[in-house]
Amino acid sequence: MGKISAEELRRKMDGNEKLVILDLRDEQAYREGHIEGAILISLSDISHDIEDIVQNKDETVCVYCYSGNKSARAAMMLEYLDYSNVCDLGGITNWSYDLKK
């Protein structure tokens, strides 16, 4: 697992790199604005829903939340579940680009 900067994640997105972005915030925050392409999921749902979202455990999975606490826990959980390319943006406040509504 590694940290990823907003700039690096944006480059991956702009380069059409295949990746899954998981938003760990609540539904209202997600509706108010999220990173383009992000999938809303709660920390408690990751362990039983992630295989439906990301079948290939070698695919890049990036996580973010409000402040970085949940995303760090989610990243560790994904690694425990044998996902090999996990990156943690931390909190949404690290994202300085436009958000989708």
From TrEMBL:
Lineage of the species this protein comes from: Bacteria, Bacillati, Bacillota, Clostridia, Eubacteriales
Protein name: Rhodanese-like domain-containing protein
UniProt domain Rhodanese: residue ranges: 15-100
CDD domains per the UniProt record, alphabetical: RHOD (cd00158)
PROSITE patterns noted in UniProt: RHODANESE_3
PANTHER family named among the record's database cross-references: FAD-DEPENDENT OXIDOREDUCTASE (PTHR43031), PYRIDINE NUCLEOTIDE-DISULPHIDE OXIDOREDUCTASE (PTHR43031:SF1)
A Pfam short name: Rhodanese
UniProt cross-references to InterPro entries, sorted A to Z: GlpE_sulfurtransferase, Rhodanese-like_dom, Rhodanese-like_dom_sf
